[in-house]
């Protein structure tokens, strides 16, 4: 990383050129509040879990949004590389345990089914798919 004119630059994971921090995130497309997709180039996609306060834990809405994001990316014939990451200090802490509460929670089978469907959607992406892990890593 180097500075130029007081601006810190970093190598982009989407090419080799230096970019200003968060340059490729200027126009994210939010599937829902919990997940965004950015297409920094025609052949690249960046899917971000947007729940940093919970270390990007996966509730039903987030699992469903990740599935929709994966299916959208899979449908783009130009996409060659997909990076999945979590906003903040962790990739994902896994399933949000509050879903499985004291009998008031969602049926664990429904959570498992949503997780399976999400994983199958990512598996259907014909592009190289990479999880950018840092901090806590959950199940993706």
Molecular structure report:
Residues 1-26 have low confidence and may be disordered. It is globular, with a radius of gyration of 16 Å. Helix content is 23%, strand content 27%. With 140 residues, the chain is of the alpha/beta class. It has two helices and eight strands.
Topology:
Layout: E1 2-4, E2 7-11, E3 18-19, E4 29-32, E5 35-41, E6 44-49, H1 60-75, E7 81-86, H2 108-123, E8 128-132
Parallel strand pairs: 6-7, 7-8
Antiparallel strand pairs: 1-2, 2-3, 4-5, 5-6
Shape verdict: globular
Question: In angstroms, what is the radius of gyration?
Answer: 16 Å
Question: DSSP strand (E) fraction?
Answer: 25-35%
Number of discrete helical segments: 2
State the helical fraction. Answer: 10-25%
Task: Kindly summarize this structure in a few lines.
The protein has 140 residues and is α/β, with parallel strands linked by helices. It is built from 2 helices and 8 strands; from the N terminus they run ββββββαβαβ. 23% of the residues lie in helices and 27% in strands.
Which structural traits does this protein have?
single chain; 140 residues; alpha/beta; 5-stranded mixed beta sheet
